[in-house]
Amino acid sequence: MISSYQKSLWSRNLMLVLVVAAVIGVALKIGWSLQKIKLYDQALAYYEAKDLVKAEETFAKANEHAGIEYGDEAWTTQMSGLTDIREELESLSRQAQPAIKDNREEEVLQAYRSYQSFKREVEGRQEARTATFFQAISTRLGLEKGWSAYYQQAIQHAKAQMQSLQVSDQQALIHTLVLVPDEFFGGTEKKAQELETHFRRYETAKLQERADSLSFLDVITQTAKSIELYRQEGISSDWLQKQLERYAKGEIGRVIRQNDLPGFVAMAKAYRQIQNVLPDKSEVLATIETHLQSLIEQAEKYAKQHKFTKATDLYQELSGLLDTSSLLAGVDELWTQFDPSRLLQQKYPDQAFDPVFTGSDHWGAKTYAIGVDQKEHRIYFAAKPTENEAPVSFDLALDIDTDFTFTLSKLEDDHDSPVLLVSSVGKERAYLYTGVVPQLSKNSFDTRFVIEADDLTIEDAARVIVKNAVGPGENELASFEFGRKGLEYVAKLEDLQPEHEEPADPASPSATEEEGDSQSGQGTPELPGAPSVEVPHTPSAGHSVDVYAGPGKEYKVIGQVSLDSSIQVVTDLNGWYQIQFDGKEGWIETPKTAN
């Protein structure tokens, strides 16, 4: 149990401790106050001596002693402002130095701009001593000197690279120079002028170097990339655009003068691909479009002159610059109209036909071609229904084993649907006659009749005179009618005496039609052995005319024929007759009929 005496003793000791602590605290405060007063007085002395750096440094130490309030309040406020300036500059120095050391351009520039902004703020206070203090602290920290050395080195390094044309990273070089503050060039205007001078000198030399060693594509691609880099940095590159235009104009003009079409197409295509970096009114692009239009007009001229291969080849060459599909389709349509035999050539490229007959406006076809293969005893058919429809083609194997003749008869299965008459050697009679009609909707031939007889004469679109037919009309000269069911017996015209006939020569006429059965403009086909068609009497009868290899005077002259002779017309096409003469085929211009 604690006695009252002990409690009293403890209380007394505690009070003594507290008193001693208070005395010590007062003593310390008095000491700190005296130290603060001393430092304040010393700082004031430095201030009056205009040594602001030491004055602020001493004042800052005095402020560390928070004992008493001492000194003039206005002066204290002024000195606190100087302390703020020093601390801000020290902070900027801590930002700038490691950024400069590691060449972190963006951070260096950010610290520099913060410094310049703070400097303008201080100078804006219009206090001479404050501005002097700012400059003194900045100098002591080496801020402006550090930035100056950093940027001057960057400028000199960039210049050296450009002079040697050994720029490893053009984008980085341009970006570095753009980041250099204007004042290191002497101002905004001088910076723009100096940079343009350096960039222009570099790009001019670089363009020449590229032109001497690289392809057109590489030259314009790399130059276009440079223009894009300048644009990204906000630098005007009109001068580089002009240099690029001048180079491209010379190169493209050269291939145009040399008629180097592949070269023109390749260059024009490449130049169009950099259109986004070219001037709004590019002279080179205009030159390309003008020449391209002239080439299109040349192709159109070829087509009009029936030089379809040249027109097609030219359009195909130009397909790298524009969509020529519709232009090619147009040429193909004209070519097919001019020479329908192409329909067969395209469908059966490896098949040889002897001969080929062409025409138009039959069986629902705008143009058609019929090819004959005597060896295989087969007929091939190809047609273009309309301009917008795809061609159709099919063939027919004839049930014969001898040569045959082939004519487009006057018999009509329907309007503009004449019957193709095939004549071959018969088994029981001199001839076997087969009538077939192309059916475009079915892609096949429709056999309309088969009849054996000693002769067959077509009177008109429906009437046929048959001599000694097998079956109805035997030993008669009989009339037959052509209808839905084929050839149907109508009436006996006269009796015939049975005769023993020699086997027919397939090369001799097998069917006859009244003179003048050729349908002008319809492409009437006949094989060798078909009845001859007399060329209409003309004022030039008695004279010879040139025979051409094709339907036009642009084709080679391959012979001459007399208009007085009996000329076998195979086809009538666009004012030209396809004829057979001297065992070969040719074309003569359709004679004008005498009035």
UniProtKB/TrEMBL annotation:
Transmembrane segments: 12-32
Domain SH3b: 534-595
Protein name: SH3 domain-containing protein
InterPro entries, A to Z: SH3-like_bac-type
Region (Disordered): 497-547
Keyword Isomerase assigned: no
PROSITE patterns membership: SH3B
Keywords per UniProt: Membrane, Transmembrane, Transmembrane helix
